[in-house]
Amino acid sequence: SYATLCVNDPNVIEACATDAAGELARGTLPPRQLATIAWSWAMLGLESSSLAWAVARQAALQLTTFKLQDLLLLAWGLGASIQEVPQAIQREVVHRIQRFDVQGCPDALWDEFLKAALGVTWVCKFHHCLTEELHVAALGALTARGAMLDSLAERSRRLERPYLEAGAGSSPGQTIARMSSGVSAEGKPQP
After folding, report:
1. Residue 134 pLDDT > 80, yes or no?
2. Are 177 and 185 in contact (CB under 8 A)?
3. Contact 74, 59 (CB under 8 A)
4. pLDDT tens-digit profile of 107-129?
5. Mapping DSSP to helix (H, G, I), strand (E, B) and coil, where does residue 100 land?
6. Which residues, 6+ apart, have CB-to-CB distance to 66 below 8 Å?
7. Between the CA of residue 5 and those of 29, 43, 55, 70, 179, what are the distances in Å?
8. Residue 154 neighbours by CB under 8 Å, 6+ apart
């Protein structure tokens, strides 16, 4: 988008705004386009209640089909300009947090999910429209992730104990390296 490219030529921005308004008037746009329009508009510092309402109307009909990252862009773009939209976005994010399978999720996907969910939480807090439901759900997601990481760390510590006992406080990698170099745990050469 032009916002990402830091375009600040008023003629280019006006042409983009006209094009976006035309696209919105011609029909329903996919979620990614709606989110990008809203976010770009906000990043360029432009205000248009008619454009915001057009995006909001279309987005409201398809919030459940938005990716979480797109909900973040939409929340950021529309901000508090239309109070109903952040409320609806928050309800959708709460629903997704509640359905999210913490245990069966790869770390990268979990981290991506959590960043976007916390992003929506931050945007709503920034715009003074954060609901208690999203606040509690986001806190619960963070707590669940922390507990999972703590569990993994504890499991890892239990696996290292035999190495620690054999190698005076060393990690498995250090013990193996020391054993292959012929040095004892006390740092003395071994025959």
Report:
1. yes
2. no
3. yes
4. 888 889 989 999 999 999 998 88
5. coil
6. 31, 35, 59, 74, 92
7. 23, 11, 22, 19, 55
8. none
Length of the chain, please? Answer: 191
Handedness of CA 33, 36, 38, 41 (dihedral sign): negative
Nearest-CA neighbor of 60 among 21, 81, 86, 40?
86
Phi-psi region of 34 (alpha: psi -120 to 50; beta: other; left: phi over 0): alpha
CA 31, CA 124: separation in Å to the nearest integer? 19
Residue type, 142: L
Q: Which residue has the tokens 């003074």?
A: 128
Q: Which residues lie below 8 Å from residue 73, measured CB to CB, with a gap of 6+?
A: 35, 36, 38, 39
The reported pTM is: 0.71
Name the residue type at position 126: F
